[in-house]
Write a structure and sequence with these properties.
Blueprint lengths: L1 H36 L5 H5 L8 H9 L3 H7 L2 H8 L2 E2 L4 E5 L5 H8 L5 E3 L10 H4 L3 H6 L3 E2 L4 E5 L9 H8 L4 E6 L2 H18 L7 H5 L12 H5 L2 H8 L8 E5 H6 L1 H11 L11 E4 L4 E5 L5 E2 L14 H22 L7
Parallel strand pairs: 2-5, 2-6, 3-5, 6-7
Antiparallel strand pairs: 1-4, 8-9, 9-10
Bound molecules: adenosine-3'-5'-diphosphate (A3P).
Adenosine-3'-5'-diphosphate binds next to helix 6, helix 14 and strand 9.
């Protein structure tokens, strides 16, 4: 009898203990979220929202963290009303490139900001004729739900190099903010090559060495017909954009610095987007196994970028690297001059 009572008591204690730990974890997760959000943010004054500021923070984060289903299950009528506020908004800012510059990292890191909602997929609306023909409503419907005070950001790195895109974006919104993340051009070209090489290898196909593609074997000069080289001539592409948008509408992100020291780069973007500073060192931690900074939402939720970001590059003949760096040098100087951002590339 005594033994039975002891077992019963032990079971009870176990259940109560689990409940207490579960509740504690839940609370910690929520407090962690609230912590980050309490002091937010007169964003609406910048982006023309009409909602009460007091209501935004918690709702915004709950939505952003995929807690929408919580509302749907146990929703009170008040929460239902908040759900009705959610809209699919055209982006107020676009990361237009550059491919392999760190576009995914930039988007994910900006998404840490409670006033930013990312479009997870690359939409390729402006660079793909078939998509563009579907019209702006099709594009808007591809956007995530957000509150009117929030801003939607999408990234499609092909926009930067595609001829028709600046005019098309201009027609949608001539005052849109444009983010360009760049890396040292030779490194970016090698990264670009590495991505293509990996794709070929996955299909069991052989591929040329980088050196063979980047240098014209007939002239021994840099091969400007090679797309990975052309994409890295940033100033050429930017000049096309400047026919439509003033330089003030662009912000250049240093992709090399975003790898080693992301916070100051993100703070510059917050400023450019007129967002109150909300991303902090707490949200970014260095993961030694990945060799990159990863994202921390609160003490429970964190994530690193997928393994396809941060590939090991193949060894490239140093003389080819030197030749490429020399080739890019004058274009880089022009890029610094136009953008007002000097990046100290070799
Ligand atoms: P590598 O794979 O050459 O290292 P994009 O998202 O535009 O394709 O850019 C990919 C690059 O983002 C990667 O290039 C990587 O160096 C860089 N990157 C920057 N910050 C990163 C981060 N926190 N985690 C992983 N990759 C990051």
């Amino acid at each position: 009898m005594l033994f039975k009572q002891q077992v019963w008591l032990r079971q009870k204690l176990l259940v109560l203990g689990s409940l207490a730990v579960g509740s504690l974890l839940y609370l910690v997760a929520r407090v962690g979220s609230l912590d980050r959000l309490q002091p937010i943010c007169p964003v609406e004054s910048r982006f023309g929202g009409a909602h009460s500021q007091a209501e935004l923070p918690l709702r915004a984060l709950q939505f952003k963290r995929g807690l929408l289903h919580e509302f749907r299950k146990g929703n009170s009528s008040k929460e239902q009303a908040h759900l009705h506020d959610l809209v699919q908004q055209l982006p107020k800012a676009i990361i237009i490139g550059v491919r392999k510059g760190g576009t995914r990292a930039l988007l994910e890191m900006l998404n840490l900001h409670p006033a930013v909602v990312k479009a997870s997929q690359e939409i390729h609306f402006f660079d793909n004729d078939e998509n563009y023909a579907k019209g702006i409503e099709w594009y808007r419907k591809k956007m995530p739900f957000s509150y009117p005070q929030q801003i939607t950001i999408e990234k499609s790195p092909a926009y930067f190099i595609t001829e028709e895109v600046p005019e098309r974006i201009y027609k949608m919104n001539s005052s849109i903010k444009l983010l360009i993340i760049v890396r040292e051009p030779t490194t970016r070209a090698i990264s670009d090559y590495t991505q293509v090489l990996e794709g070929k290898e996955r299909k069991n196909k052989t591929y040329y060495k980088f050196e063979k593609l980047a240098i014209d074997p007939n002239t021994c000069e840099v091969n400007t017909k090679y797309k990975a080289v052309r994409t890295s001539i940033y100033t050429k592409h930017l000049e096309r954009w400047l026919k439509y948008f003033p330089i003030e509408q662009f912000h250049i992100v240093d992709g090399d610095r975003l790898i080693t020291e992301p916070l100051p780069e993100l703070q510059l973007v917050e400023k450019f987007l007129n967002l109150p500073p909300r991303i902090s060192q707490y949200n970014l931690y260095f993961n030694a196994t990945r060799g990159f900074y990863c994202l921390r939402f609160n003490i429970i939720f964190n994530k690193c970028l997928a393994g396809s970001k941060g590939r090991i590059h193949p060894e490239v003949d140093p003389s080819v690297v030197t030749k490429l760096r020399k080739f890019f040098h004058p274009f880089n100087q022009k890029f610094y001059q136009i953008t007002g951002r000097t990046l100290n590339w070799p």
